[in-house]
Task: structure prediction
Amino acid sequence: MKDKICAIVLAAGMSRRMGTPKMALPWKGSTVLGTVLDSLISAGIEKIIVVVGSARDLVEEIVSQDPAKIQIAFNPNYENGEMIDSIKVGLAAVDSDVEAVLIVLGDQPQMESTTVTGLIEVFQHRWSECIVPSYQMRRGHPWLIKRSLWKELQECGPGYIMRDFLRKYNHIIHYLVVDTPTILQDLDTPEDYAANEGQVAP
Result:
C-alpha cells in the first residue's frame, strides 16, 4: 500500500521572513529539507515529489541525494507565495496509480517518521479520504488526502487557501491524535531556527 502513496513536499517558498533559503539550512548533520526527506524515506515512502521554486539550484542539489525515489516539479508561480499553487504542481506530477498524497511542509524538519507511518496505517485500515494529525486539539502537518478529493484542489481559483479545503471537508476528516507537538512546528523566522539550535549541527 505504501507504494500507492506519494509525498508532495512543498519547498518552493521565498524564505522572506528567514532571510536566507531555509531549505538548505543545517539541521542535525543534514539540511532542513534533507531531514524532511530522510523522515519520509524512513517511514517507507518510495514516491516523493519536491515542488521547487525559489533557490531552485540549492534545493535540487539537496534532492539529488536519492533520485530513484525523489523527483522535482517546478512551480513557476512561486513568487506569489500561495501554497495551493505548489500543491497543484505536485498533483499534476503524481503517477496515475497513486491512491493518496501526503502534503508535507519542506520547512518542518521536526516531523517524525512515526507520524507519517501513523497516517499511513489509518489510511490502510479506514480508507479515509482526508487524514490530519492533531495535537491537543490543534491540527498540524502532514495531511493525507485521497485521490477522490484532488479535483477540488486542482480546480480551485485564486485566493483559495487550504483552510477553505479543510473547512469544506471537515465532516469527513479523520484526526490522528498524536502525543508530539512536532506536527505544529515549522521554521519561518531566524527566531524559530535559533530556538532549535541545540538540535542543529553547527
